[in-house]
Amino acid sequence: MGCGTGYLTRILAPVAGPTGQVTGVDASPAMVEHARRRAPANCRYLVGVGQTLDLPDMSFDIVVSSLAVHHMPAGERGAAVREMFRVLRPGGRLLIAEFRPPTGRLANRLAGLLTGPAMRHDLRGLLGTAVPEAGFRVEDEGELKPMLFYVRAVRPAA
Ligand SMILES: C[S@@+](CC[C@H](N)C(=O)[O-])C[C@H]1O[C@@H](n2cnc3c(N)ncnc32)[C@H](O)[C@@H]1O
Predict the structure, then answer these.
(1) CA of 63 relative to ligand 1 center, distance in Å
(2) Average pLDDT for 137-150
(3) Is the pLDDT of residue 55 over 90?
(4) Tell me: the pLDDT tens digits for 65-119?
(5) For 11-40, what is the mean pLDDT?
(6) The CATH homologous superfamily of the domain defined by 53-158
(7) Measuring from atom 20 of ligand 1, which residue has the nearest CA?
(8) What b/e readout covers 125-147, taking b as 16+ CB neighbours within 10 angstroms?
(9) Which segment of 34-38, 108-112, 146-150 scores lowest on mean pLDDT?
(10) How, if at all, do strands 88-99 and 148-154 pair?
(11) What is the reported pTM?
(12) How far apart are alpha carbons 147 and 48 in whole angstroms?
């Protein structure tokens, strides 16, 4: 979700294997167009927003989102997590990786100036609440250097 140029989907394609399929969704038609030009055989790309995915219920084994949720309007991020839950099959797994902005005021301002205001917001609190509220069981969360954090969760089997 929020696949951008398709960088991560191209890494995931061999993991899914020849019988698996990777679907990248991004709000930007230009990003999707770029990703399609470099698509491995088992990757497909759709233009769409994470808050209202045009994908069937329980149709994926794994949902991955990196550095996309912070781009969404603050009030719609919970809806995006609920959509990730909806499209996962019971037992399916979720990985969200997000930017972890500097906590110092000056460094945080600088990060915002260099990368855009969206990058100043720390989503750990929001995802810490939105992921279990959507119905997920959180398996693991942590930090990755230099400036990432992640949440891994499972949609409990029915
Ligand atoms: C920083 S890029 C990350 C791309 C990719 N996930 C990666 O890690 O390389 C953020 C992407 O999120 C997409 N995006 C922003 N808002 C979105 C939304 N509401 N739904 C889906 N994608 C969105 C942008 O178009 C952009 O391609």
Answers:
(1) 14
(2) 92
(3) yes
(4) 999 999 999 999 999 999 999 999 999 999 999 988 777 788 777 777 777 766 6
(5) 97
(6) Vaccinia Virus protein VP39 (3.40.50.150)
(7) 49
(8) ebbeebbeebebeeeeeeeeeee
(9) 108-112
(10) antiparallel
(11) 0.92
(12) 27
Q: Where are the beta strands (DSSP E) in 7-154?
A: 22-26, 43-47, 60-66, 88-99, 137-144, 148-154
Pocket of ligand 1 (CB under 6 A): 2-4, 7-8, 26-28, 31, 49-51, 66-68, 71-72
Residue of 11, 28, 76 to mutate, ligand 1, most atoms within 8 A of C-beta: 28
Strand runs (DSSP E) across 9-136, as ranges? 22-26, 43-47, 60-66, 88-99
Domain ranges of the chain: 1-48, 53-158
